[in-house]
Design a protein that fits this description.
The protein is mainly beta. It contains 2 helices and 30 strands. The N terminus is likely disordered.
């Protein structure tokens, strides 16, 4: 009986549709084919929208086959996004960076300062730039006495809570010196020594956090590769003037090797760093809750991804967002970038996500990660698009904790403008890249990435998204920036 009723209903529906042409104006059925990716302009061929595993978010078939339920609303909403880079006018090596609340960007520049010292390049006008002529970059390192001799490993870091610019130099494995400026580089402290004579000093990294300190607003910690089977770390409670003896930067019995990725301080006062695991397998994030004096190991979920066979064994990078969530990035055995997050200070981790875009990358290297607001993350890495054509890829994530988060990736250099063409550049020390790169997020939520344009003469460059969503506050589009590129070198 139900089939008979259905047949009668269908017959009446067809009859009514025919008669509608005689008795009135035919009503058109409008099918809404609009998509969250229908922007007011075409998507660039150097921009990709994708899910974990390189699933193209614009390919409905691929999304269905991956069993992904798209929820492109709220913080997961896609924005028209593009990227570019801007030269600092000087060469660089292992370019570290920092951002002050006065909207100045800083980058270390090896050997280009006074008497061949490390320069601290200040780029003003880049943040908020409307025309390329709005920004300029100058060396602001002008010490009160003689400049510190050129560093083998130059390093600059800006305290996120006090704006103190810390210049941290390593001298031929023998020791390290610290200098700082509290006024955007207009004046500098005299050098202080940050060295423990019990160990050689190499591959240093430094950071700060609002862990209670008696003589300064923040506590500072540095770690080095020294005479131990794991990194050694030291603490300053007076802003870098004096330092504690170096202690194990891992559990005492840890056999991780001494090379460590960038240190990161958390708003709650914790310190974190990435390193190979203590058991010699996988990668781990190491956490200190007492100002860098003891560290615990927190293994990353690398069971499926494996780990890359890289020479420096330090590819576990870590970034902390404004709400103390921990974001980790590493390279897998397939030389692709992977990501996981922790919402409980590293005690447990999400599943690993492969974050490379849906394009033919042969391999990637030099990973770095940073974070802004809660669940807002940016990743940087080099990628070989074939034939040792090494490009810079910047990936952003605005809803890390949602189901099936959307990744947006931009290539920051144009097609035909590679950053390097050296064989296996991403897997070795290479030109101005040195051992590592660096990232940060400004107060408006725009990510900034310090790296080198090796083909252009190892020129230091700041890369970012010229258009796209903010990584802070409510989800919204950033103020557009003019395209940079080779004309800025």
């Amino acid at each position: 009986m139900s089939r008979i009723k259905f047949a009668l209903s269908l017959t009446l529906l067809m009859l009514c549709s025919v008669l509608s042409g005689c008795f009135g104006t035919e009503e058109k059925v409008i099918i809404d084919d609009s998509s969250p990716f229908d922007f007011d302009r075409p998507i660039s061929n150097t921009t990709w929208y994708h899910y974990s595993g390189g699933v193209d978010a614009l390919n409905e078939t691929a999304v269905l086959e991956a069993n992904i339920t798209a929820n492109l609303t709220g913080n997961n909403l896609p924005f028209w996004t593009n990227g570019s880079y801007y030269g600092i006018g000087l060469s660089t090596f292992e370019p570290t960076m920092g951002i002050t609340s006065n909207d100045n960007l800083y980058m270390s520049s090896w050997g280009n300062g006074l008497a061949g010292s490390t320069a601290i390049v200040q780029c003003s006008g880049l943040i908020g730039m409307e025309n390329l002529s709005d920004y300029s970059c100058v060396d602001v390192y002008d010490p009160p006495l003689l400049p510190v001799a050129n560093s083998n490993d130059p390093y600059v870091y800006v305290d996120k809570w006090t704006d103190r610019i810390m210049k941290f130099d390593m001298h031929a494995l023998l020791g390290m010196t610290v200098e700082w400026s509290d006024n955007e580089g207009e004046s500098w402290s005299i050098p202080t020594i940050a060295t423990d004579i019990r160990s050689v000093q190499d591959h240093q990294t430094i950071t700060s956090a609002p862990y209670p300190a008696a003589l300064h607003e923040t506590t500072w910690v540095f770690c080095i590769n020294g005479n131990a089977p794991h990194p050694l770390c030291s603490t300053s409670f007076d802003g870098g003037n004096t330092w504690s003896p170096e202690v194990s930067g891992a559990p005492i019995n840890c056999q991780s090797g001494g090379l460590t990725a960038h240190l990161e301080g958390s708003p709650n006062g914790n310190f974190y760093r990435g390193n190979a695991g203590c058991n010699g397998e996988g990668y781990s994030i190491y956490r200190s809750t007492n100002g860098g004096f003891t560290w615990t190991e927190h293994q990353l979920p690398t069971e499926i991804s494996g780990t890359a066979d890289t020479w420096n064994a330090e590819e576990a990078q870590v970034g902390i967002d404004d709400e103390n969530n921990v974001h980790a990035m590493w390279l897998g055995a397939d030389n692709m970038p992977y990501y996981a997050y922790s919402r409980d200070e590293g005690d447990t981790w999400s599943d690993a996500m492969m974050i490379a875009p849906p394009t033919d990358l042969v391999g990637t290297g030099f990973p770095v990660v940073t974070a802004g607001g809660e669940g807002r993350v940016a990743f940087g890495y080099l990628g070989d698009s074939g034939g040792d054509t090494w490009n810079g890829y910047l990936t952003i994530l605005t809803d890390a904790f949602g189901e099936n988060p959307l990744f947006t990736t931009v290539q920051i250099n144009d097609v035909g403008d590679p950053l390097d063409t050296t064989t296996d550049c991403g897997y070795n020390r290479c030109g101005g890249f040195g051992d590592f790169l660096d990232m940060g997020v400004d107060q408006y939520g725009r990510p900034w990435w310090s790296l080198s344009h090796n083909e252009g003469g190892d020129i230091g460059i700041f890369a970012t998204i010229t258009n796209g969503p903010s990584l802070r506050e409510d989800i919204a589009g950033l103020k557009p920036m003019p395209h940079g590129g080779p004309q800025t070198l």
